[in-house]
Design brief:
Layout (H helix, E strand, L loop, with lengths): L7 H19 L11 E3 L12 E7 L2 H16 L3 E8 L2 H9 L5 E5 H8 L9 H12 L4 E3 L9 E6 L25 E4 H5 L4 H7 L15 E4 L1 H9 L5 E5 L4 H4 L2 E3 L12 E6 H6 L2 H9 L5 H12 L5 H11 L3 E3 L1
Length: 332
């Protein structure tokens, strides 16, 4: 088990070195350190915290920035002196910050941990069993996974809602095979098109073969940048677009997500992850995050993500507004 940095000066120096390494190695763009002031709500100051230092990290995409700010606000209200290290560029440096003991808390996804960090090849279909497997495996890494949210930010395919009736009222991926060949058209990002858990095995799971005239002809597949997939699907350039299930563009563009009725896609439930020594020192953190995590559903995260990606709002303001509305905190 790793030990915590023995004093604030040493901890700050180590974090400074981490930041320099990230800037040099990954082109870190400075995140806004703005976090709006908040006051207690259902989250109250914790006994014995007395301004103890805690470091919050996050990756640098919208959902992670919003979740990171939710954690920063909650921990500040609870009485911690929070060092905001959100907006780390990518999964690898974010993970490294935790396993090196320089970041105390991050939000992470069960599927990412299982398949990417722990090197497993077969996802576990049941989301609770997937969480338990990750939680148990991560004990050896000095990390404690608290219970996950209902939100599952996994892959999916969506169709523009106005086309659902035209496609026979389609609601599941298994129904794609019953459509005429010309209607089996897909927009995907380049990575998904080539992943061993991407387009080709997904089609095969649903009884379709890429490149076959009676399956999905290659001309029926368009490869686009991630953001362009949403717009192309909405504009009818393809019937089925690859999406992430908590993306705010789904409701903003009025897309309908098809049910993955053969459970092909892994579970990516988001959960708070803490350094085990940090949780041992402040066990009340489990109860604090237990007030937040059950509220994070796909619909909630879609709405929060849309306010940033579609409406252009600041992640900190979006985080605070939601927390105030949920009664977790008040305005400072």
């Amino acid at each position: 088990m790793r030990t915590r940095t023995p004093n604030r000066t040493a901890r700050s120096a180590a974090l400074g070195a981490l930041a320099l390494a990230l800037v040099a190695g990954c082109g870190l763009q400075t995140a806004t350190q703005y976090t709006p002031a908040a006051s207690p709500g259902s989250i109250q100051p914790l006994d014995g915290v007395d301004g103890a230092e805690i470091v919050v990290g996050s990756k640098n995409f919208t959902e992670q920035l919003v979740l990171g700010k939710i954690a920063v606000i909650a921990l500040q209200v609870a009485g911690f002196d929070v060092l905001d290290r959100t907006n780390i560029p990518g999964s690898v440096p974010a993970r490294q910050g935790m396993v090196d003991g320089e970041i105390d808390m991050e939000w992470e996804y069960t599927g990412t941990a299982w398949l990417s960090y722990l090197g497993e090849t077969e996802p576990i279909v049941d989301p609770q069993q997937q969480y338990v497997a990750v939680r148990d495996a991560e004990e050896a890494n000095g990390l404690t996974w608290l219970p996950p949210a209902p939100a599952n930010n996994t892959y999916a395919f969506a169709v523009r809602s106005e086309a659902v009736a035209q496609l026979g009222g389609i609601s599941t991926l298994s129904q794609v095979a019953s459509l005429p060949v010309e209607e089996r058209s897909f927009c995907v990002e380049s990575e998904f098109a080539s992943r061993n858990d991407g387009l080709v095995p997904m089609l095969e799971t649903y009884g379709l073969v890429l490149g076959e005239a009676q399956g999905v002809p290659r001309d029926n597949v368009r490869t686009l940048d991630t953001g362009a997939v949403y717009e192309a699907t909405d504009q009818g350039a393809c019937n089925f677009g690859e999406v992430f299930t908590t993306d705010g563009r789904i409701p903003a563009l009025d897309l309908t997500v098809l049910e993955d009725d053969r459970a092909f896609f892994p579970n990516y439930n988001v959960a708070p992850v803490l350094l085990t020594p940090t949780l041992d020192e402040h066990p009340e953190l489990a109860g604090l995050f237990a007030e937040i995590t059950p509220l994070l559903t796909n619909d909630v995260l879609q709405g929060l993500n849309a306010r940033v990606d579609v409406d252009g709002e600041d992640p900190g303001d979006v985080a605070l507004d939601w927390m105030v509305g949920a009664g977790l905190v008040g305005r400072g």
